[in-house]
Amino acid sequence: MSLLLSMLLAAGGCACPRPVHFVDLHGNELKSLEPCWQSLHRFFGEATPERITIGYTPESASSFSVGSDSITVSMNEWATNPAPIVAHESSHLALSHLTQGASATEPFRFLDEGLAEYLQHVVAGDLPAYREEALAVAAADRARGAISFAAMRSWQTCFGRPPKRNLRAYAAGASVVFFLVERWGEPKLRAFFAELGRTRDLDQATRAKIELSVEQLEAGWTAWLKTQRPAMTDSDEPLRIVRFSPAQGSKSVSAALREVEVELSSDMFGRAPLCLQTPCNDGLCYTEAYWKSPRILAVRAPKGLRAGTRYELRIGAAGCQIQSRSGEKLPVTEWSFQTR
Ligand SMILES: [Zn+2]
């Protein structure tokens, strides 16, 4: 036996090449995404497609196609951090296999999107932060009667249609998945989905696998959401900006600044569109905007600002405002300052 082979055997390894599960449209293997496939496989087991083809689109929305076990990923996300969105879209494929197609039908899409969100953030490594946001958003919407199982089972109404999409619906679906995972664990959730595929009936599946009627499940989820609502997140005061940096109207800002930011009075819903308006030809551009924390919206200036320049930013636009987790919208706000 060669030294190499005996070393491999000693390490419990195998000399045969492992299959690669993600390929591009030309059949090239995308080895760097293997940890993502393993994460999906831990949840879905043999329902995970052995080979998933990835194409790209200039559109901002990614998508999936069950028949061909392929997904189409937005090039923006592909360029920055592909694994989370690949996990999201591939979760739709695997769940469709596990539920024999039921997950992609209208009454169960809220669970399909909820699970895709959950696994996306498992792969992104930011599940606790996502959980906090999703539960705060869902709790606020449930408290004011905006969501219920009946409302979510009509997914097209709940989520809307482009361009008027209600991204809060994803948080609602994810909150149900978090509830199921935390109460019953992932193996029971998987068994519940398999049962949903067999019966195509939510009530039968919950009774068979978690011993609750669907009404009892919804009541339990509602009560649980109330306990998850962060008590101190939102004050009675209207949502506002509590700090501008540089200060509003300041006249001698250093051009060496590499980032500007505003701080909001409550935790914000980071998935809502930013709709920030900037000229982009003076070192500051909306494409560099990001949520630095749940309350701080920052804009990077990778090359610094331009000296002797007046900056005018508009946060929000008509019909497009940033919003808090409780759903409050920030009035469109002008912000100006000048460099020396
Ligand atoms: Zn999705």
Overview of this protein structure:
41% of the residues lie in helices and 16% in strands. It has 340 residues and is an alpha+beta fold. It has three domains: 15-98, no CATH class; 105-230; 241-338, Sandwich (Immunoglobulin-like). A four-stranded mixed beta sheet has the order 1-2-4-3. A four-stranded antiparallel beta sheet has the order 7-8-11-10, with no helix packed on it. A three-stranded antiparallel beta sheet has the order 9-12-13, with no helix packed on it. 36% of the residues are buried. Bound molecules: zinc ion. Residues 88, 92, 113, 116 line the site of zinc ion. Zinc ion is lined by residues 88, 92, 113, 116.
How is the topology of this model organized?
Elements: H1 3-10, E1 22-24, H2 34-44, E2 52-57, E3 63-65, E4 70-74, H3 75-80, H4 82-98, H5 109-124, H6 127-143, H7 149-153, H8 155-159, E5 160-161, E6 164-165, H9 168-184, H10 186-199, H11 202-210, H12 214-228, E7 241-245, E8 259-264, E9 276-277, E10 289-293, E11 296-300, E12 310-315, E13 333-338
Helix pairs in contact: 2-4, 4-5, 5-9, 6-9, 6-12, 9-10, 10-11
Percent strand:
15-25%
Q: Largest sheet, if any?
A: 4 strands, mixed
Let me know the average pLDDT. 91
Query: Nearest-angstrom radius of gyration?
Result: 23 Å
| pLDDT < 50 runs, ≥5 residues | 5-11
Strand order of the largest sheet: 1-2-4-3
Order of helices and strands: HEHEEEHHHHHHEEHHHHEEEEEEE
Number of β-strand runs: 13
Per DSSP, the total helix count is 12
| Distinct small molecules bound, one entry per kind | zinc ion
What overall form do the CA principal axes indicate? globular
N→C terminal distance? 74 Å
Task: Kindly give the count of domains.
Answer: 3
Fraction of residues in helix: 40-55%
Structural class: alpha+beta
